[in-house]
Design brief:
The chain is α/β, with parallel strands linked by helices and about 600 residues long. It has 23 helices and 18 strands. The strands form 3 sheets. It has a 7-stranded parallel sheet, with helices on both faces. It has a 6-stranded parallel sheet with strand order 8-13-12-9-11-10. The radius of gyration is 27 Å and the shape is globular.
């Protein structure tokens, strides 16, 4: 396909997407990509980042691979692209094996132009093998700030993307973010070798958003929120809370007071969570009370208010969350109910991501003494080392980055099997040697009322065959329509490059400990920045822009501080010592001599 000259980009925009003009910042990003260069686009929420890769995808020969952490966003964008008859697909955990096979075929044949995947997909052997057979013209990475070790939302699986882009010799990379500070932007450019001249950024200033900070005692917060929603009726509205159970208790109270509210958080059943989102998007629900699990990729233009029931974790989070209001350009209200007591929970989240020295040494020693090749379960390792799975994944990613470990792929160790026909009938259709193997496989599993649960590695050991042979045999049964199988028990494979590491486990553990402590100090400092912002009487809009190194020449004139209700520092949490009763309660588990204590 011929790459258009820059003067033809407007014609291409209208042909594929029906727009006559680009939004601010879009055209230079598209132009850099079609000319063969990588780019970084930092645009505020709702500024049209997705078009920056969707249009080049239609103009370039080959596949555009889009990395996104959100299934909801993938579904919405693929549905929208297909409505325009553009060849797009998504690979996520909801896809069946048959659908995945069809997508792999479309990739290798060149029929697919856009493929959305989660960052975790890049540890799948099947997916990586398919990429090798595919011409990739562009890698687009949404939420690219997640790659930065010093960003507000570092995710270890993102750190692998830079290495993989080099491994597959992907010529163009587009990194996208709504909240990157200059330091994080520099980190993104370094990782993906993006020239400074190809860093495009539009203003973070949203003049239609009125920011208000209201200090409040914890005991009065729910009453104040309810009063605001009942009297001011700025709907649709989002209420952000830190904890899942808070969303449910707040939503229940609002409903009791006659308001049309629903809770949303990651702990809800998939169908309940999807129904809550659909009701809010269609207008059946006026208020969604949610954790930050809600909102990314939500394209609802007419949100009239965003309330922060709890302090946001960082100013980057705050900028992104209030950016979901007023995308239609009309005035919107953004209010933070500032209570210093929230700091305790947020600090605990940060401290919980820093493993203690002994646990970290135990973990590293375990990993580096496994032998040349090994596999592990994050959850099993978490239980045995007393280190959170996310922290273990971060450690593994750092070890990969330093070439101390090398990932060999992921696989499922357990399958649940449902028979679609009587077992003897299934066996009758196979040669005698396979019948013997199948009888052994079936007898190795644990039978339930509906499912046979099979531990593949254990069965392979008992039967004296390879795990790969058992998996291939199950695939044959599934393809023949004899069984349904569901995977579980994901395991991650690794090898020591060269068979051994010259780094001593203590040296590696000390190096990792230093990284975690620096991140902890930075994240705690970010929390203090939020508290400082909440208690500063200067123009809130100008303060927020200054954090992102952007200057507003004069006060905004419409935030709470500018309109005559200057904020004051949030009330401090009430002091409380440890009582005699508390000490008695602490002694009980101690006296029981639990190993973890």
């Amino acid at each position: 396909m011929t790459t258009p000259l820059p003067e033809n980009l407007e014609a291409a925009l209208f042909r594929w997407f029906g727009h006559r003009d680009f939004r601010p910042g879009q055209k230079p990003v598209v132009q850099a990509l079609v000319e063969g260069r990588s780019a970084l686009a930092i645009f505020p929420t709702g500024a049209g980042k997705s078009l920056c890769y969707q249009l080049p995808a239609m103009l370039l020969e080959g596949l555009t691979l889009v990395v996104s952490p959100l299934i909801a966003l993938m579904k919405d964008q693929v549905m929208s692209l297909r409505a325009r008859e553009l060849p797009a697909a998504r690979l996520d955990s909801t896809r069946s094996e048959g659908e995945i096979a069809e997508i792999y075929e479309a990739m290798s044949s060149g029929h697919l132009k856009l493929l959305y995947v989660a960052p975790e997909r890049f540890v799948s052997e099947g997916f990586l093998a398919s990429l090798k057979r595919t011409k990739i013209s562009l890698l687009a990475i949404d939420e690219a700030h997640c790659i930065s070790e010093w960003g507000h939302n570092f995710r270890p699986e993102y750190l692998r993307l830079a290495t993989l882009s080099k491994k597959f010799r992907i010529r163009r990379v587009l990194a996208l973010s709504a909240t990157a500070t200059p330091a994080v932007a520099k980190d993104i450019r370094r990782n993906f070798r993006i020239l400074t001249r190809d860093h495009y950024q539009t203003s973070f200033h949203r003049p239609n958003l009125a920011i208000h900070i209201t200090p409040v005692e914890p005991s009065h917060r729910l009453e104040l929120l309810t009063q605001r929603l009942l009297t001011e009726k700025r709907f649709p509205a989002i209420v952000y809370c830190t904890l899942q159970h808070t969303t449910e208790s707040v939503a229940a109270h609002l409903k009791k007071c006659g308001l049309n509210a629903r809770a949303y958080h990651a702990g809800l059943a998939d169908d309940v969570r999807a129904a809550a989102q659909d009701d809010f998007m269609t207008g059946c629900c006026e208020i969604i009370v949610a954790t930050i699990a809600f909102g990314m990729g939500i394209d609802k233009a007419n949100i009239r208010s965003v309330y922060h029931y709890n302090l946001p974790k960082t100013l980057e989070n705050y900028q992104q969350e209030i950016g979901r209001a007023g995308r239609d350009g009309l005035p919107a209200h953004c209010e933070m109910l500032a209570c210093a007591e929230d700091l305790t929970v947020l600090q605990n989240f940060t401290l919980g991501n820093t493993p203690d020295e002994q646990s970290l040494r135990h973990l590293v020693d375990h990993l580096l003494r496994q032998g040349r090749e090994f596999d592990l379960s994050l959850h099993e390792l978490s239980r045995s080392t007393d280190v959170r799975p996310l922290v273990i994944e971060t450690v593994l990613t750092y070890l990969e980055k330093e070439k101390i470990l090398e990932a060999t792929g992921t696989f499922y160790s357990v399958f649940r099997i449902a028979f679609r026909h009587p077992e003897e009938k299934i066996l009758a259709g196979h040669p005698s040697d396979r019948q013997r193997l199948l009888r052994g496989i079936f007898s190795s599993g644990k039978r339930g009322r509906l499912w046979l649960t099979l531990d593949v590695a254990a069965a392979a050991k008992v039967l004296g065959v390879s795990s790969r042979r058992i998996l291939k045999t199950l695939d044959i049964l599934e393809e023949a329509g004899d069984i349904d199988k569901k995977p579980a028990g994901i395991r991650h494979g690794f090898r020591l490059p060269g068979g051994a590491t010259t780094r001593h486990p203590k040296e590696v553990a000390d190096w990792l400990r230093d990284i975690f402590l620096r991140r902890e100090a930075q994240d705690l400092e970010r929390l203090e920045t939020v508290v400082g912002f909440a208690g500063n009487p200067d123009c809130s809009t100008r303060q927020l822009l200054k954090y992102f190194h952007e200057t507003l020449s004069s006060p905004c004139g419409h935030c709470g501080n500018c309109t005559g209700s200057p904020t004051r520092p949030p009330p401090p949490p009430p002091g409380r010592g440890i009582s005699f009763e508390d000490l008695k309660n602490l002694q009980t588990p101690r006296s029981e001599q639990h190993a973890a204590l």
